[in-house]
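User: I'm putting together notes for a lab meeting next week and I want to include a structural view of one of the chains we've been expressing. I don't have a solved structure, so I'd like a prediction I can at least talk through. The sequence is below, exactly as it appears in our construct file.
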Amino acid sequence: MQAEFNRRHFLQAGAATLALPALESFAAPTESTEDRPKNFVAIGTYLGWYQNAFYPQQAGHNYEMPATLSPLKDYRNDFTVFSGLDHRAGNGHGAWSNFLCGQSPKTHSLDQMMADSIGAKSRFASIQLVAGASESNTKGGNAISFTRQGIALPMIQRPSVFYKQLFISKADRARTEYMLRSGRSSLDVVLEDAMRLQKTLHGRDRNKLEEYFESLRAVETRMGRQLETINDPVPEPDYKLPSYDPVTPNLQIEAEQIMYDLMTLALETESTRVISFFLHGLGQVFTFDGKPVGSGYHGLSHHGNNPTMIRDLVKVETAHIHCLAGFLKQLKEKKNHEGKSLLDDTIVLLGTGMGDASRHSNANLPTLVAGGGFKHQGHVAVDRSKQGAPLLGDLYITLMQRLGMEVDSFSNASRNMNEVLS
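Assistant: Thanks for the context. Below is the predicted structure for the 422-residue chain, given as structure tokens.
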């Protein structure tokens, strides 16, 4: 008979740390489909989080709320903070996408794995958003979500565009249908030509063209899904957009607030089940209580342990968390037809691909998981220096299994953290 392991064997109060071996008792828990969450939201900051103000000093439930997370004090039973987790990926901004991609940046991302599994059950398989970027940076620059073929998915920057996509008018619907059908016809011609060309190729060129085919098929699948749902009834929300789009980087916080409102509407109306939200970081100078901080956001992240710069950086990061708190509040207050809160129905992952921007280190990535119907554990402190310590990918396996996906690996991880988060 399989032994039962008590969670207290792994979690202790005080300054306890965690290093979990690969045990069979960590298998995915059995639960009914009705009990599983249906949605996933990933939120990632390009410049990371200042660890000393993000991580609690104590492990377990009875920790003192750190400064950056202080806006979440009313929801401390609804989330778990993880320290010591990462993907053992390379360092630097160029490897930032390890956040959702794992040890190999710019590969199939966690959110897109989920979209491939559960996305077909909604109007949009997934939605990718960004705040704080310049117009030019959204075109071929940094990205948070990548297809199976490693293609970066474009992100929506303007709240008005996101709103129109969710609640499309009849005129826009007809125009979109025409464009989709025209695009699909063009795609058919390209595929026919490419298949003829493939017969004349050998070796690497043939394999490269096969990768191209896979990308085209993925586009064709997405277009087909959009056509299938183009005439589905579209809800009419009572939400009123502001009269302007806060798209300049220095209005990032204002943009985040609106995007979170629209994200809530997207989940509530079941328009999508998978959302990724990229919080960019450039040279924008933020103003709080009428006073600008001393340097641009990117400059503050390279604080070099300067107390004044750290103080201002924590102000910016706390403002991000204040926006997140508003999002969690909305999710917790909204109920489905079964009386279940939208927060219990949604796994919210907050994290980054940058562990310490001041040193360009991608180790020890600050991570927070909220909602999802989990029995949250306060602060789970992992000692990454111990042999057999879990990876961030092990946590991701738990998140995927929670959504009903039959997976046992992610990137360089092959276990899970079900005994810690269930």
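A couple of points you could mention at the meeting. Residues 19 and 327 are 32 Å apart (CA to CA). The longest helix spans residues 170-198.

User: Perfect, that's what I needed.
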